[in-house]
Amino acid sequence: MRKLIRQYAKDLTSGRLASGYEHSYRVYKLARKIGEGIEYDDEILHAACFLHDVEMAVGHPKSSAEKARIILNETGFAPNKILKVYGAIINHMPGGKPPENAEGKLLYDANLLESIGAIGFSRLSIGAFYWHHVKTMEEVLTNLKQWSSYSDSFCFEQSRVLAESKRKFLKTAIKQFEEELNF
User: Fold this and answer.
1) What is the full DSSP assignment across 83-138?
2) Does the pLDDT of residue 140 top 90, yes or no?
3) CB burial readout 41-80, b (16+ within 10 A) else e
4) Which helix (H) or strand (E) holds 141?
5) What is the pLDDT of residue 183?
6) Which pTM value belongs to this model?
7) Cα–Cα distance between 108 and 10 in angstroms, integer?
8) Do 143 and 98 form a contact (C-beta atoms < 8 A)?
9) How far apart are CA 68 and CA 50, in angstroms?
């Protein structure tokens, strides 16, 4: 079943640089690292991580959660677990309702970690154009600052520890970005 879920993720995110399969894979690895010593259902976490960005239109948490529900029903995933995957995906973005279960919190923190640091800087810069249709570098900078501010909202202490060097990098990159824009 895991292989089938990963294949759906690959097929549905093919060609996406900032929110494709590689992103989902890194999110899953980060979530497992954060989750060391925490009780969670890895089957739910795996499905949530690989399917959280299968749709990237406006309101993508809801549309991705709906698509995940369809996929998981097709794969024979346990119905009671589908609801937990749905809840994790629908609440994986900062600024919304906080995740309720361990798997949702792990996905939230891992996705946020993936959005800061060097990879995060690249993802958010690319994403500003593709996801938010920004037109200026100032708007890219605003998007970077907004995501940087979210790094205070981690659910787990382990996430804060893992975020330290990533936050420093992003802070330095944002400062440099500002200096170059104001040159």
Assistant:
1) HHHHHHHHT-STTSPPP-SHHHHHHHHHHHHTTSHHHHHHHHHHHHHHHH---SHH
2) yes
3) bebbbbbbbbbbbbbbeeebbebbbebbbebbeeeebeee
4) helix 137-150
5) 85
6) 0.94
7) 21
8) no
9) 9
**Average pLDDT value for the chain:** 94
105 by Cβ neighbours in 10 Å (0-12 / 13-18 / 19+) ranks as: buried
Q: No. of H helices and E strands in the chain?
A: 9, 0
The CB density around residue 136, as the number of other CB atoms within 10 Å, is: 10
Is it the case that residue 12 has pLDDT exceeding 90? yes
Structure tokens at 6: 């990963």
For the beta carbon of residue 174, count every other beta carbon within 10 angstroms: 16
- Which residue type sits at 44? I
d(CA 183, CA 166): 26
pLDDT tens digits, 145-163: 999 999 889 999 999 999 9
